[in-house]
Write a structure and sequence with these properties.
Radius of gyration: 37 Å
Number of strands: 2
Order of helices and strands: HHHHHHHHHHHHHHHHHHHHHHHEE
Number of helices: 23
Helix content: 40-55%
Strand content: under 5%
């Protein structure tokens, strides 16, 4: 009953306000001074004309919101006219009508204002005046710590959540994360319409909800703005090994934060590799990144089968020198015993380079082809020219080959002794640090199966990379207000696409 009486009392004010007629509202306020909600609508007239708002003498959550909105307008300044807030409307002089429709004063009898009205008497009302080209200073700062709770207690659920979102996002922007987290617990995203996705993300960011909530949010939210939620969700799923969900949720990710976008895309590649969907993984690796993780994932994606055109294109895009990538693929294939895959990778390496000669020797060793191994080793180690730099380059290549042969020996032992003898000779020839590396490989090759020397390679699973910092530019609520609609409910502001009263469409 009380709510109904308040709605009836506010109806004349609300009707004039929602008709965008501040002149009519000023007349209603003058003729119904002291009525319920009159003070709130008087505040609204001042807000809409950018006039001074005096401090509240008694607590009133709806009137407090008017002052907070005025303070926001002062913060936005001239930028408010281009913002997605109600200040885009208020900074247009023609958004409201302001004519109070006073009677003609010619031949009229006028006397001072009195409480009692005579029959036929019509008050002369001062027309509201738009001053937003020279707005008043912002209202005095007020303690709004408990405002969300007060709004919620009064039954204003949507206004409470909207204000809690606004205050939490502002506190977070100022680095006051603890206070922001306290406010975030008062946000109900379901009450906030289009702002609800951002509100849910803010709760997750501030710990009011756990990372698992990001999965549901990412599934309900699409488009570039959803990237932070998608990154949080994909990262959470990946750390639990839920690869089918990662592949589905990360597909089609888009957004302007390059670090987050790469994280989501690479998690999807990892998921596709884990699911043995390797052709999709090859296609999904971002070609415009040179990160080590992208390269490792590319190697995983092309592993296990002969290189085709798509694989060669991928590796060529990610490595400054694709020969290094092809050599890595060949080496992995040899350790896995996949000679045909290794040969396809070796065929992609330019034949005149040092890298091609190393891979050639490894292939011959793994295949047990004694003649080919001796010939390739000779081509790799025979000195050409007097330059020290060339000698050192060949020494490093020999050391790299020796380490690879020691690792291959347990699965391809046929030429173990021949390789040990040849490398032992090179160790004496080079001496120094290179000689010591070569001697270590010789010892491993001469040990039965090389296992006791600890050189057998064990592939380690790729780690899930750290989630990049999630930086969000939190959108402003369109309105912080809660205005009676005259029917017992509240509205925050006018529809965004409505036509201007007495003026052009926005």
């Amino acid at each position: 009953m009380i709510a109904l009486l308040l709605a009836v009392a506010a109806a004349p004010f609300a009707d004039a306000f929602w008709d965008r007629d501040l002149g009519a509202l000023a007349r209603e306020l003058l003729e119904h001074r002291g009525a319920a909600q009159a003070a709130l609508f008087e505040d609204l007239v001042r807000l809409c004309d950018c006039e001074t708002l005096a401090p509240l003498e008694t607590p009133d959550p709806l009137r407090q919101l008017v002052r907070i909105e005025a303070a926001r307008g002062a913060r936005l300044g001239a930028k408010g006219g281009a913002s997605e807030t109600l200040w885009r409307d208020l900074l247009r002089k023609d958004f409201f009508r302001r004519d109070p429709r006073n009677p003609p004063l010619e031949n009229a009898l006028a006397w001072p204002d009195e409480e009692e009205l005579w029959t036929g008497e019509i008050r002369v009302v001062e027309a509201p005046r738009w001053r937003c080209d020279q707005p008043a200073p912002p209202p005095a700062a007020q303690d709004d710590t408990g405002l969300a709770g007060a709004l919620r207690t009064a039954g204003y659920r949507e206004a409470a959540s909207r204000f809690a979102y606004h205050r939490a996002s502002r506190l977070l922007a100022r680095g006051e994360k603890t206070a922001a987290a306290e406010q975030a617990r008062g946000i109900d995203p379901a009450a906030l319409g289009e702002l609800g996705h951002w509100a849910a993300l803010l709760r997750i960011q501030l710990g009011a909800d756990g990372p698992g909530e990001a999965v549901a949010l990412a599934r309900a939210w699409s488009g570039p703005q959803s990237l932070p939620a998608r990154a949080l969700a994909a990262d959470h799923l990946a750390r639990q090994g839920r690869w089918p969900e990662v592949a589905e949720l990360a597909e089609g990710a888009e957004g302007s934060d390059r670090a987050l976008l790469d994280h989501v895309r690479l998690l999807r590649v990892r998921a596709l590799v884990e699911l043995s969907r390797r052709e999709e993984a090859v296609a999904a690796v971002p070609r415009d990144t040179r990160s080590e993780l992208a390269r490792d994932l590319a190697l995983e994606a092309v592993a296990g089968r002969p290189l085709d055109a798509a694989s060669i294109e991928l590796l060529s895009a990610l490595w400054p020198d694709p020969a290094d990538a092809f050599a890595k693929v060949a080496e992995r294939a040899l350790f896995a015993g996949a000679l045909e895959v290794a040969r396809s990778a070796a065929a992609a390496i330019p034949g005149s380079g040092m890298r091609a000669r190393i891979v050639e020797a490894e292939l011959a060793f793994a295949a047990g082809d004694r003649a080919a191994f001796q010939a390739s080793l000779a081509r790799l180690t025979t000195a050409q020219g007097p330059r020290i730099s060339e000698r050192l380059a060949r020494g490093r290549a020999a050391a790299e080959l020796a380490g690879a042969l020691a690792s291959l020996a347990p699965t391809a032992p046929a030429l173990r002794r021949e390789a040990a003898a040849a490398i032992d000779s090179l160790a004496e020839q080079y001496g120094g640090s290179i000689g010591r590396e070569l001697a270590t490989a010789v010892a491993a090759l001469r040990t039965r199966n090389a296992a006791s020397a600890g050189v057998v390679r064990i592939a380690a699973p790729l780690p899930v990379p750290d989630l990049p910092q999630v930086l969000v530019s939190w959108p402003e609520p369109r309105s912080l207000l809660a205005i009676p609609d005259g029917e017992g409910g509240l509205r925050d502001w006018f529809p965004a696409q409505a036509a201007f009263a007495g003026g052009p469409s926005p």
